[in-house]
Amino acid sequence: MKRLLILTVLFLLIAPAALSERLNSWEEVQQAFSRALDRQAKELTLTLSSPLLKEMDADPGRIRLAGARGGYGNFALTWWTNGKVEVTGMEPFGCPFQFVRGEDGMTAAIQEMKLKDVDRFVLLFEPEDFARLQISPVEKHVLQMKSGLYDCGSGYYNEKACWYEYVSCRYWDGTVREVRGEAEALSAMQEIGGLGYDAFALVLDRETYTRLMASDGRRLNDMEAMACIAGGSVSYPDESIIVYGAEKQPVFYPGFAILRAVKAGKEDALPERLQQTLAEARRMVAGISGSPYSMTLQIHDLLCRHIRYEVDESTDEDDSCIGAILRGEANCDGYSDAFFLLCGLKGIPARLVSGKAIQEKNPGEDTFHMWNLVLLDGIWRGVDVTWDDSDENSRIEYAQFNMGLDRMRENYEMIEDFLPHPLLEATALQELPVPEFRVSTSDEVIMALRRTAAEGKKEAVLRMDARLFSEYSSADSPVWKWMDLAGISGNAAHSTEERRVTVSDISLLDPGILVAGADSEEEMIRLLRSASGSREIRVYCSKPLYRLYSGEASPVWKWLDLAGISGSVSHSDAMERITISEIVPLAGDIRTASAETESEIVSVMHGASGSRELKVYCSESLYRIYQWAGDPVWKWMDLAGISGKIGYSDTSRMLRITEIAPLDPGIRVIQADSPGNLISALRNLDRRNVKEIRVYCSESLFQTYEENQQNVWKWLKEAGISEATVQYGTAGKKLLFSEIR
Q1: Beta-bridge mates of residue 657
Q2: Which of the ends of the chain has fewer CB neighbours closer than 10 A, N or C?
Q3: Interval 487-504 mean pLDDT
Q4: Domain 18-92 listed as CATH 3.60.21
Q5: Are strands 84-92 and 44-48 parallel, antiparallel or unpaired?
Q6: Cα distance between residue 162 and residue 133, in whole Å
Q7: Averaged over 389-396, what is the pLDDT?
């Protein structure tokens, strides 16, 4: 009985081996699952070799991976140490499945599923590939979209079996661009539009994505507008991915679609409404010719006459060139899209730009605004047809034609980093029969008038901001100053309601009249010096300079003297203008100069030898030295080698020397700082025909003399002078030697 029991147990232990073939590799296990799938089996018994059993004990996922590759997504397992494995509750995938290796394998598999247009499938991965995709879901999404799978309604995965199941699949023909930073993202958007894609995805670095999505995606919205994306569907499948137009809606403005079709020779493929728009646009520009600048201006004027500003909520056509061209009604988007299209048909590069209108300049208007940039002579310039079209009086304006960055900053809030380069910095003035300018400073007015006259125009319209118009319409209107500084004469009229000033009958000033502004005395003298040869000079002074001129000690005569001219002086307190007329150069034998120091005035006096008269305008410190009791002017003249008659003006700190003549040749003049210096100078002096020696001493040398006047005889003897008459002057610290032997 005991022996029978032992045999029974042994039979039970070895019985499973008899039920199925022993499997020695995971490929054999996979094949067993595949055969079960062919039979639609729900249960399966497997016998594993000892090595496989050990591997499964260490990692049960190995058998689940083999089962998945055999076509089963889910099942239960029971196994014994003898290698028997019971597989129950087997659920097949019930959809196409494919084992893949690496990115290329995944891409090929998804593309195959796209061709079959299946809405559900399973991809089985190597464990290392599966782990990498789990760690980087963004990478997984990018690979899927690059392969043609846009999205799936839901998805499942099994970590142990390393498979993904894709359900409710949607495919697309879009392109994917991986970019870093906002500038690259914008460039990619614009390039993709130019290539004709209606759907695309951007994969951004996390920092850029976060920045663009901040503040409800405002920066992203601005960038979309600059890239001319019309607002098709947008989705965000992951935290670094933005997808546009995956459902194949046209995402770019119709003007883009039309030009793309024209360039590609696919006009017949355009929808009927766009074909109608293209035909009418071609008719509109058929008669336009000339230089790119001239054609741009003609397109600007044509659209101003053709379009009426309209915001119709019942149709989207006002937002595009369709409504602008076919119905003559559009908002700013439509104006801009139409301008872009017509320029493109004439081969003129143009772009759409968007931002926010500055409300102070355009009260009541929607803050969003769109305008254009156009490339002329290699430089991008702004054009806003919407604002130049004045529907109220049918007048075409040109204030927003040929705009530079300065004028755009006045009109709009925009992201300047996204603007193309090179960009016109300062607004170019219009080459128009009646140019119009929006001006906010006096300098802009002067520039506009000067340019108008240079181009031979007879009239200019100045549209001023409130502050400048208030200045213009004041009792002391600066309009005549503006015209003077612009070098023109003319008549001025204005419209208070529109803050508009019209300058008409423009002609250049008489060439004999010089007009300029001055901020300092030095600048005034320089201008007056340049007026020699002019009949009249009008100088508009800064407030400090004019206060100096109109004070009690008016320096105007000093200015004239130092400029080397004389003339008749008049002024206008209202405009702070000084007018010098009857201008003639000073007589050739009258010399004028300024001096800051004693050495400088000696040099000036020395240079005046041969002149009939010298006027020296002294610095305040130098004039104080002159006023000392010692009266050093005679010393200065002696050292300069001249004699003359002295006059002065305390008001203008001027010294006037007349009857100028060289010193008597028998008089020698020297300066000495010490006894040794004096002895050396006397010893080296040519004493032939010398009647008198004038020595100007330093403070210390003269003090030595005063302490013991007998020292002078010692100095003379050492210098080789045996006899002399000695006199001295305390005020000038001067020693005078005469009757020298």
Answers
A1: 614, 646
A2: N
A3: 90
A4: no
A5: antiparallel
A6: 10
A7: 72
- CATH 3.30.1370 describes domain 430-509: yes
What is the spatial distance between Cα 404 and Cα 615, in angstroms, rounded to a whole number? 52
What are 594-645's pLDDT values in tens digits? 999 999 999 999 998 889 999 999 999 999 999 886 779 999 999 999 999 9
Task: Write out the CATH class of domain 667-738.
Answer: alpha beta
Domains of the chain, by residue range, sit at 18-92, 172-252, 278-428, 430-509, 518-662, 667-738
Q: Which residue has the higher pLDDT, 420 or 678?
A: 678
CA–CA separation, 576 and 661 (whole Å): 43
Architecture, CATH, for domain 278-428 = Roll (3.10)
How many other CB atoms are found less than 10 A from the CB of residue 344?
A: 20
Which SS3 state, helix, strand or coil, does residue 256 take?
A: helix
Close Cβ partners of 94 (under 8 Å, ≥ 6 residues apart) = none
- Asked if domains 18-92 and 430-509 share a fold, the reply is yes
190 vs 503, higher pLDDT: 503
Strand 513-518 and strand 536-541: pairing?
A: parallel
Instruction: Give the torsion through C-alpha atoms of 377, 381, 384, 388, to 10 deg.
Output: -70
Q: How many CB atoms lie within 10 A of CB 235?
A: 14
Which of the residue ranges 207-221, 245-259, 512-526, 613-627 would you say has the lowest mean pLDDT?
245-259
How many Å apart are CA 63 and CA 12, to the nearest integer? 25
Helix, strand, or coil (residue 527)? helix
Going across the sheet that includes 84-92, the strands are 22-23, 44-48, 84-92, 72-79
Question: In this model, does residue 381 exceed pLDDT 70?
Answer: yes
pLDDT at 15 over 50: no
By three-state DSSP, how is residue 706 classified? helix
To the nearest 10 degrees (0 to 180), the angle between helices 292-306 and 272-285 is 120
